[in-house]
Amino acid sequence: MDPQHGIGRPRLPAPRSRYGPISRWVSRLCGHAAGQQGLTLVELLIIMAVIATLATIGLLFYGDVTEQARVARAVADITTVGGEIDTFEMMNERLPNDLAEIGRAAFRDPWGNLYVYGTFALIPPGHRRKDHNLVPLNSSYDLYSKGRDGASHPPLTATASRDDIVRANDGNFVGLASRY
């Protein structure tokens, strides 16, 4: 049979790699011969670097998503507790002295810290939560989470207060202090 004219035995396909599609992709990328099998050390290092980069990006994304979920849960908790405080006030014609009066004494935020509540009858004016203009956030009581760092100061402009989840405008805003 004449090999120059394509007559004769048909050409057999290259043997399949036992390492799967990634090996074939890397082999093509690196210009290996069709029959060569296996990966060199450099190719393995390249694959490991790509996987490590993708894993790092995934972990960063996962961290952001879990933090957003914690903030959303704290917002929902504060909204719920605020409603319970308002109900208590309507039923008893006074605000509760602490969260224990509404059955929330040991209620913790998503970061494991206790929620902070204080009625203005018990909080001196200098210790009330304040916005960037140093105006109190609420007119009757404060309710907030200390956020991820577990630290807080009365003005929202303080570094320790930027991650707090606050109730402001008498419940019309509940969210991150940095967004208020």
The CATH topology name of one domain reads: Glycoprotein, Type 4 Pilin
Helical fraction: 25-40%
Major sheet summary line: 4 strands, antiparallel
Rg calculated over all Cα atoms: 31 Å
User: Strand order, biggest sheet?
Assistant: 1-2-3-4
CATH class division of one domain: Alpha Beta
Total number of strands: 4
Looking at the structure, what is the overall shape? elongated
Based on secondary structure, the structural category is alpha+beta
Hey, roughly how much beta strand do the residues contain? 5-15%
Order of helices and strands: HHEEEE
> Architecture of one domain, according to CATH?
2-Layer Sandwich
**Average pLDDT over all residues:** 84
Number of helices: 2
Give start-end ranges of low-pLDDT stretches.
none
- Give the N-terminus to C-terminus distance in angstroms: 84 Å
Question: What's the layout of helices and strands?
Answer:
Elements: H1 21-30, H2 41-92, E1 116-119, E2 141-145, E3 165-168, E4 173-176
Antiparallel strand pairs: 1-2, 2-3, 3-4
Protein model, in words:
- The structure is a single chain.
- By secondary structure, the chain is of the alpha+beta class.
- The chain has a domain at 73-179: Glycoprotein, Type 4 Pilin (2-Layer Sandwich), CATH 3.30.700.
- It has two helices and four strands.
- The chain has helices spanning 21-30, 41-92, and strands spanning 116-119, 141-145, 165-168, 173-176.
- The chain has a four-stranded antiparallel β-sheet with strand order 1-2-3-4, covered by helices on one side.
- A hairpin with a 4-residue loop joins strand 3 (165-168) and strand 4 (173-176).
- It is elongated.
